[in-house]
Write a structure and sequence with these properties.
The complex is a heterodimer.
Chain A (H helix, E strand, L loop, with lengths): L4 E3 L1 H7 L4 H8 L3 H8 L7 H11 L3 H4 E3 L6
Antiparallel strand pairs in A: 1-2
Helix pairs in contact in A: 2-3
Chain B lengths: L1 H28 L13 H21 L6 H7 L2 H28 L7 H28 L2
Helix pairs in contact in B: 1-2, 1-5, 4-5
Chain lengths: ~70, ~140
């Protein structure tokens, strides 16, 4: 079974004062996709994970981690 | 920003219409006047089928967002939508198999016509897929 994928998308987004729609525009996806990733309903593809990390200027590992493997 | 809002509106519309159409398709799939009579020239049914197909294709075309351009369509059908669509199609496939198995079992006790059997099998497959897709999309949209 795949372990749950955690993320700090909401914290980083709110720290920058962005709405879900603004982040969606930056990475060219729908707000629905940002919402589902933030709430761990949907596991993003590698491409989307890289785009999100680039939008925040952090590494993918700083944005996503597997349960029991928190990096920071 | 405006583009994201337009995508959101179409996605919400699609989720709701998908659910309603799914319910209508499943309901009308079981609404057969006579499950046995087969009349090759039943034009009422033929027109009904044409209307059903037109509504379905119209919904799929408009709901895809491709009428607003390829870039808009790509946003409307991003990876969450693709994942929800895959799950919904799988649900439709299983519904179709279960209905076909049910029709086969019923045919031992009842002279089930070919046309009504195909009708209910297709209606269940398409209807359940639409309902599942609508449900998944509505859940994904919730803040």
């Amino acid at each position: 079974m795949t372990p749950p994928l955690h993320n700090r998308l909401r914290a980083l987004r709110e720290a920058r004062g962005w709405t879900q729609a603004e982040l969606a525009e930056r990475v060219a996806v729908s707000r629905k996709t940002i919402n589902t990733v933030e709430n761990r309903v949907f596991t993003p593809s590698t491409v989307l994970a890289l785009k999100l990390a680039r939008a925040f200027g952090v590494s993918v590992e700083d944005l996503f981690w597997l349960e029991g493997n928190e990096t920071s | 920003m405006d583009r994201i809002a337009r995508v959101e509106r179409l996605t919400r519309w699609r989720a709701h219409v998908s659910t309603v159409l799914g319910i209508v398709f499943v309901a009308q799939g079981f609404r057969a006047a006579d499950w046995r009579v087969i009349q090759p020239t039943d034009y009422t049914q033929l027109v009904g089928w044409a209307v059903w197909l037109t509504v379905l294709l119209g919904f799929l075309l408009f709901g895809s967002g491709l009428l607003h351009g390829a870039a808009f369509g790509a946003l409307v059908n991003d990876e969450t939508t693709a994942a929800n669509r895959r799950t919904a199609l799988l649900a439709g496939f299983w519904a179709m198999l279960a209905t076909a198995a049910g029709c086969y079992a019923v045919s031992f006790h009842y002279a089930l016509g070919v046309r009504p059997a195909i009708h209910v099998i297709v209606a269940m497959g398409v209807g359940v897929a639409l309902m599942r897709f609508g449900g998944l999309e509505r859940k994904a949209l919730k803040a």
